[in-house]
Every structure is written in structure tokens, then in C-alpha cells.
């Protein structure tokens, strides 16, 4: 293997390991929802707020953090974000006592995600040019699912032994390790300068880029379905299990959620490869249509045997993630030279605004439709996912028509 290729593999692996470590805390709260329902007496709307604020806080600051990667090395932004993630999880472990304190510390941890996930992608692409870059992007994007799988696994296993506070403490330690790894391994680089200077958050050039906007809107839809599913998976499966006479065995809800995230990682990588055969835009549009139908069907499946519900959820997880790497690569490919950071900032802002709203809307629908003990309420809540997902193919059809570049194999 040539030295450049070995360097690219090592760089990708390093950033993927760091990504997993910063994501250990991303779904710790949703993974332990039944515990907080009992201990704090939360409503479904309050739970939706706490689950969603992580991404809402992300959306509030991600524009600035990612835009800055056009001006300063993304490595510096990453280190700051990892520190915020560690402090947010540590604060939750030590001081969270109810709705408001939980909301505050989850918001702080969400700001940490703003400084790590997309800046990490920018750090990768700034250091790994060439024909294999698209594959590296797909692996990095797919690793998000591995990180969320670790989040469900760590939360469930640690809480069962030492209690929920230690689940958040472990997440804080993991984020601190990511900070150390990136600080030691990544060498500083100077970002590519734009041809013309603009204000930090002057997003008008991105809004005029129709092809980039098509993928940015599709990313928002993807974020909506992904965070809705993962924020409510454990509570949904706990209800489906309680509704029937089935025994979960080793397939307890947190384990199912962990496996679904691992399946999704493979789906992202395979989806990126498949898109080279069918075309990026066509692949994303087709996957989203199937995903919308499957998501709505999943919500009304609670009357089925528990194993059937689990199988359908896993299939939905495959569809949700099958277009993730393709969407991110599409946005990067459509970005103007020197404006990758700004384009990723708009991409991230819209995606995480949707990620904030999605769990909240889901929880509100649950409350309005009868609560988490009503099969109809779960069906209607999941239908909100399907309705949102259908907007993705519409955006790609209207804005991306005829704009796709020829597809080449990475």
C-alpha cells in the first residue's frame, strides 16, 4: 500500500475512533428514558424537550463553529467541541436533578457535538484529498452509527451496574479521550481560502447553490427521521414488549437499539457504494420513499409479536442510514472551492434544527394522541416521521434535477 494511502487509512481510522468517543453521550438520555420517567415523573413532551435540546443547542452554534473552519484549522474547533462535550456530560452526571438541570447540561453537551462531528469531517477532507476521499467520508459518516450504538450500549450496561449517573460520567471520560487523541495525532494545517472574502455567516452564496441546497434539505429530512427513531426507540420497544406476552430474552430494548445503530453503520457504507451504480440523487430519492412507508408501518406494528417489531425496526434503521454518506458527500461535492466550511455550516444548521424539532414533535404527538400507553398514539407519532421524509425526494427533484455530476467510483 502506498504511503499516501496508508496515511489516509490511519487518518480516517483516528478520526473515526475520536468520533465514536465523542458520541458515547449522544443518546444516553434517550436510552435511559424509562428510568427518568419513573425517577423524575417527566411527561412525554418534557422528555422530547430534553432529547431534542441536545440537537437544538447544536443547531444554535454549529453555523459559527463550522464556518470558522474556512478561516482556522478544523482541529482547533474540534478540541474545543470535545471539551464542551466532556463538561456537559460530567455536569449531567454530577448535578442533574430534574427537567431544567437536565435541559441545561444536555444543551451544553449538544454544543460539543457542533464542534466535533462536522469539524471532524472537515479536518478529514482537509487532510485527505484524492479519489478515495468519498469512501473516507462514507466511513466517517457511517461511524456516527457506531458511536450511537456505543451510546446505547454504554448507557444500558453501566446504568444497570452503577446507576444512570455513571453512564454520563463514562461519556464525559470518553469525550476527554477523544480530545487527547486528536490533539496528539492530527498535525495543524491551513484551510483553503475562499476566492473572495465574505462575512462569517454570510450564507447567501450557499443559498444560491441549488445543487448544494438540494442535498442540504435532504440532510434535514435525514436528521429528522434519524433522531426521531433513536430518541424514542427504547421507549417504543418497552411499550411493544409490555403490550404482549412475549419474552425479550437478550433482546432488551437498549440492546436492540445498539444493534440497530451498528446495522445502520454498515448500511451507510454499502449505500455509498450502491449510489455509484444508480447515481447519488436517484439513490437518495428511492431510499427515502421506502423509508417513509416503513417508518409509518413501524408505528402501527405494536400489536405484532415483539420479535417482528424488532425485525421491522432493524429494517427501518437500514433504510434511515442508507443515504447518509451519499447526502454528506453530495453536499461536499457541490460546495464551491473555499466555501466548504460555510456550506457544511448551512448543512449542519438545517440538519440539527430538524434534529431538535423531531423528538419534540414526536413527544407532543404522543401526549396529544393519548400517551405512550396508546398503540394509536405511537402509530401517529411514527407517521410524522414518514410525512417529513417525503419532503426529501421533493427537494431533490425540484432543486437537483439535471444538476448531478457524473458518478465516478472512489
What is the fold-level CATH name, i.e. the topology? Growth Hormone, Chain: A
CATH C-level label:
Mainly Alpha
Number of helices: 18
Q: Give the end-to-end Cα distance, rounded to a whole number of Å.
A: 16 Å
Radius of gyration: 20 Å
Total domains, how many? 1
Topology as a string of helices (H) and strands (E): HHHHHHHHHHHHHHHHHH
Question: Helix/strand/pairing class, anyone?
Answer: mainly alpha
Major sheet summary line: none
Low-confidence stretches: 402-410
Number of strands: 0
Question: Mean pLDDT score, rounded?
Answer: 85
What's the helical proportion of residues? over 70%
- CATH-derived architecture: Up-down Bundle
Global morphology: globular
Strand content: under 5%
CATH superfamily assignment? MFS general substrate transporter like domains
Short description:
The chain is an all-alpha fold. The protein has helices at 3-22, 28-31, 33-40, 44-67, 74-95, 99-114, 117-127, 133-162, 164-185, 204-207, 210-243, 253-278, 280-299, 306-321, 324-334, 340-368, 375-389, 391-399.
Amino acid at each position: 500500500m502506498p504511503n499516501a494511502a496508508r496515511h489516509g487509512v490511519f487518518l480516517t481510522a483516528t478520526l473515526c475512533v475520536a468520533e465514536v468517543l465523542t458520541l458515547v453521550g449522544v443518546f444516553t438520555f434517550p436510552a435511559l428514558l424509562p428510568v427518568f420517567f419513573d425517577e423524575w415523573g417527566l411527561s412525554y413532551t418534557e422528555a422530547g424537550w430534553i432529547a431534542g435540546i441536545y440537537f437544538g443547542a447544536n443547531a444554535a452554534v454549529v453555523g459559527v463553529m463550522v464556518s470558522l473552519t474556512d478561516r482556522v484549522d478544523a482541529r482547533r474547533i474540534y478540541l474545543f467541541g470535545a471539551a464542551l462535550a466532556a463538561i456537559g456530560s460530567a455536569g449531567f452526571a454530577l448535578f442533574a436533578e430534574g427537567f431544567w438541570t437536565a435541559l441545561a447540561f444536555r444543551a451544553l453537551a449538544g454544543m460539543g457535538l457542533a464542534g466535533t462531528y462536522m469539524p471532524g469531517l472537515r479536518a478529514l477532507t482537509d487532510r485527505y484529498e484524492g479519489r478515495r476521499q468519498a469512501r473516507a467520508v462514507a466511513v466517517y459518516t457511517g461511524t456516527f452509527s457506531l458511536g450511537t450504538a456505543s451510546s446505547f450500549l454504554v448507557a444500558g450496561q453501566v446504568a444497570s451496574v452503577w446507576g444512570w449517573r455513571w453512564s454520563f460520567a463514562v461519556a464525559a471520560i470518553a469525550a476527554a479521550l477523544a480530545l487527547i487523541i486528536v490533539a496528539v495525532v492530527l498535525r495543524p494545517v491551513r484551510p483553503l481560502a475562499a476566492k473572495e472574502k465574505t462575512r462569517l455567516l454570510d450564507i447567501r452564496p450557499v443559498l444560491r447553490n441549488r445543487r448544494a441546497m438540494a442535498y442540504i434539505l435532504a440532510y434535514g429530512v435525514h436528521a429528522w427521521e434519524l433522531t426521531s427513531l433513536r430518541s424514542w426507540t427504547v421507549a417504543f420497544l418497552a411499550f411493544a414488549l409490555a403490550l404482549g406476552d412475549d419474552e425479550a430474552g437478550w433482546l432488551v430494548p437498549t440492546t436492540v437499539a445498539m444493534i440497530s445503530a451498528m446495522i445502520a453503520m454498515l448500511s451507510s457504507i454499502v449505500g455509498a457504494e450502491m449510489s455509484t451504480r444508480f447515481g447519488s440523487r436517484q439513490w437518495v430519492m428511492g431510499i427515502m420513499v421506502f423509508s417513509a412507508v416503513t417508518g409509518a408501518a413501524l408505528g402501527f406494528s405494536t400489536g405484532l409479536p415483539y420479535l417482528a417489531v424488532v425485525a421491522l425496526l432493524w429494517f427501518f434503521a437500514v433504510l434511515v442510514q442508507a443515504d447518509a454518506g451519499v447526502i454528506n458527500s453530495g453536499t461536499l461535492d457541490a460546495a464551491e472551492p473555499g466555501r466548504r466550511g460555510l456550506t457544511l455550516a448551512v448543512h449542519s444548521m438545517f440538519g440539527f434544527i430538524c434534529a431538535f424539532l423531531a423528538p419534540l414533535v414526536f413527544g407532543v404527538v404522543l401526549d396529544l394522541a393519548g400517551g405512550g400507553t396508546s398503540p394509536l398514539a405511537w402509530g401517529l407519532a411514527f407517521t410524522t416521521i414518514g410525512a417529513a421524509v417525503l419532503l426529501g425526494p421533493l427537494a431533490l427533484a425540484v432543486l437537483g434535477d439535471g444538476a448531478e455530476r457524473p458518478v465516478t467510483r472512489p
